């Protein structure tokens, strides 16, 4: 089976969040099931500099009006097709934002071009690679099924995965002519979205099947409170909606072999965690007392519930806890958390920024991680935490609810608890969850039991890759 994946990020080449982790890990997991995935990604500078001896497959003189090349290369075990289009991607900044943090004004064209090329490949652009199915991700890949539907690849099945419905790719009608879609694509069952153009909306209308990254979130996005305006579109396609929980790359995230942590350890011997705890205290300038260390590895945004933190930190410290924060995002939140750290020297430490290495040390050295997200399609940090014996303290929503077993009385009795869940998702809920975690931490035997139980949880891709494989097969056989 040949799959074309279309994504705007892929670990380890370019990552701003969980999409990159999934786009990077799923092809490797599918490979062991005999499924070959090639991934189409934009040739940002971060990608181009990682490519060793890429092969130029095609010169594309007119990708929505700009010239481009399609390169082929294998990198870190991933088979990549790189859209090298300097006019669209050779920029200072990240994949979506310029150096000052603003959206590139032509993002609509940058990702329409990616999707257009994806659809062309589905339609037979490459003589040695005919995808049996196309798997597109988020709004940046969402026009792929749209171009397929209105073009020559209409018979090839497609899957669109929603990783974050908060980002929908909505643009003014004025771009329509430049997208080179037929006039009838601007319709309610196409890409028209409240008089504008909706990339994710169009993708949801056009893909053969829709997935999101946990069963609970698949149910939630049918409701107005989570669907962010798309609940009606999704409800109309509920019969092709699937929730498949994410796995993690258990090779990269393995406390027994992780070069980024102070000492390797496993569930059989958790003692070496102490070395990472010490390194973490050193980095974040935290007191060396035995109080529990909570951690945060997150975008500092409302989605992630990070605005709740300033409201609970004084209480966390008053109860003997410490907090190590790694994140960046909303400037006002960064300011509030820097202020909290300044008020609580030795108890709260913060590193503003994105730091992959440090995120590993936090999982290995902290006692618990706080994930108070307002909504969370799946969430990956709690899965890394489970694998590292760092107790996840999570809001009861989406994939967080599906992957962490709350340490309630029954679960503790049955020895199956792996973390702490809380609701309602507000400052009081989080405060209560922190109190409960501190009480659990005081019982060292119980705490170790929860750590070990979490480390036993299957967070690998094996099961979920199997579910994607089943879905792909069923769609391919239906359209064959
Ligand atoms: N400052 C920092 N330094 C280093 N690493 C940092 C960091 N901030 C975040 N990260 C890392 O970025 C990733 C974040 O992934 P998440 O799944 O938690 O959320 P995200 O909202 O990006 O993903 C969306 O897509 C994914 C994938 O489907 C869903 O799990 C999720 O629910 C959805 O919102 C993790 O690998 C985390 O360790």
TrEMBL record:
<keyword id="KW-0320">Glycogen biosynthesis</keyword>
<feature type="binding site">
    <location>
        <position position="15"/>
    </location>
    <ligand>
        <name>ADP-alpha-D-glucose</name>
    </ligand>
</feature>
<keyword id="KW-0328">Glycosyltransferase</keyword>
<dbReference type="Pfam" id="PF00534">
    <property type="entry name" value="Glycos_transf_1"/>
</dbReference>
<dbReference type="GO" id="GO:0004373">
    <property type="term" value="F:alpha-1,4-glucan glucosyltransferase (UDP-glucose donor) activity"/>
</dbReference>
<comment type="similarity">
    <text>Belongs to the glycosyltransferase 1 family. Bacterial/plant glycogen synthase subfamily.</text>
</comment>
<protein>
    <recommendedName>
        <fullName>Glycogen synthase</fullName>
        <ecNumber>2.4.1.21</ecNumber>
    </recommendedName>
</protein>
<dbReference type="InterPro" id="IPR001296">
    <property type="entry name" value="Glyco_trans_1"/>
</dbReference>
<keyword id="KW-0808">Transferase</keyword>
<feature type="domain" description="Glycosyl transferase family 1">
    <location>
        <begin position="289"/>
        <end position="446"/>
    </location>
</feature>
<dbReference type="InterPro" id="IPR013534">
    <property type="entry name" value="Starch_synth_cat_dom"/>
</dbReference>
<feature type="domain" description="Starch synthase catalytic">
    <location>
        <begin position="2"/>
        <end position="235"/>
    </location>
</feature>
<dbReference type="Pfam" id="PF08323">
    <property type="entry name" value="Glyco_transf_5"/>
</dbReference>
<dbReference type="GO" id="GO:0009011">
    <property type="term" value="F:alpha-1,4-glucan glucosyltransferase (ADP-glucose donor) activity"/>
</dbReference>
<comment type="pathway">
    <text>Glycan biosynthesis; glycogen biosynthesis.</text>
</comment>
<dbReference type="InterPro" id="IPR011835">
    <property type="entry name" value="GS/SS"/>
</dbReference>
<dbReference type="GO" id="GO:0005978">
    <property type="term" value="P:glycogen biosynthetic process"/>
</dbReference>
<dbReference type="GO" id="GO:0005829">
    <property type="term" value="C:cytosol"/>
</dbReference>
<comment type="function">
    <text>Synthesizes alpha-1,4-glucan chains using ADP-glucose.</text>
</comment>
């Amino acid at each position: 089976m040949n799959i074309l994946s279309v994504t705007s990020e892929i670990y380890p080449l370019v990552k701003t969040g969980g999409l990159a982790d999934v786009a990077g890990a799923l092809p490797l997991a599918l490979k062991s099931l005999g499924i070959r995935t090639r991934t189409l990604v934009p040739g940002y500078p971060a990608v181009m500099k990682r490519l060793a001896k890429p092969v130029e497959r095609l010169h594309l003189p007119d990708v929505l009006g700009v010239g481009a090349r399609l390169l082929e290369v294998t990198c870190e075990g991933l088979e990549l097709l790189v859209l090298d289009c300097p006019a669209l991607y050779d920029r200072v900044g990240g994949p979506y934002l310029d150096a000052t943090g603003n959206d590139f004004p032509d993002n609509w064209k940058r990702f329409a071009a990616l999707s257009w090329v994806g659809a062309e490949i589905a339609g037979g652009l490459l003589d040695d690679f005919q995808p049996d199915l196309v798997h597109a991700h988020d709004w940046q890949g969402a026009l792929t099924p749209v171009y397929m539907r209105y073009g020559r690849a209409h018979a090839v099945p497609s899957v669109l995965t929603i990783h974050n419905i908060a980002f929908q790719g909505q643009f003014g009608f004025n771009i329509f002519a430049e997208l080179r879609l037929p006039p009838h694509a601007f319709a309610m069952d196409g890409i028209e979205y409240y008089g504008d153009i909706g990339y994710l909306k169009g993708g949801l209308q056009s893909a053969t099947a829709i997935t999101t990254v946990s069963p609970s979130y698949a149910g939630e996005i049918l409701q107005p409170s989570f669907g962010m305006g798309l609940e009606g579109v999704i409800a109309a396609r509920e019969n092709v909606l699937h929730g498949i929980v994410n796995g993690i790359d258990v090779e990269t995230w393995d406390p027994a072999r992780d070069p980024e942590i102070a000492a390797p350890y496993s569930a059989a011997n958790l003692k070496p965690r102490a070395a990472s705890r010490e390194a973490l205290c050193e980095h974040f300038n935290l007191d060396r007392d035995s109080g529990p260390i909570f951690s945060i590895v997150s975008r500092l945004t409302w989605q992630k519930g990070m605005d709740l933190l300033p409201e609970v930190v004084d209480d966390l410290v008053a109860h003997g806890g410490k907090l190590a924060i790694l994140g960046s995002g909303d400037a006002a939140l960064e300011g509030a958390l820097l202020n909290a750290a300044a008020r609580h020297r030795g108890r709260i430490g913060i590193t503003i920024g994105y730091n992959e290495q440090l995120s590993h040390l936090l999982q290995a050295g902290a006692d618990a991680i706080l994930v108070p997200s307002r909504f969370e399609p799946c969430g990956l940090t709690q899965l890394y935490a489970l694998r590292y014996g760092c107790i996840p303290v999570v809001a009861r929503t989406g994939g967080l609810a599906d992957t962490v077993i709350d340490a309630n009385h029954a679960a503790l009795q049955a020895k199956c608890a792996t973390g702490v869940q809380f609701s309602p998702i507000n400052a009081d809920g989080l405060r209560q969850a922190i109190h409960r975690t501190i009480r659990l931490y005081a019982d060292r035997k119980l705490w170790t039991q929860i750590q070990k139980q979490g480390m036993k949880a299957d967070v690998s891709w094996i099961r979920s890759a199997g579910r994607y494989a089943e879905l792909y097969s069923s769609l391919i056989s239906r359209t064959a």
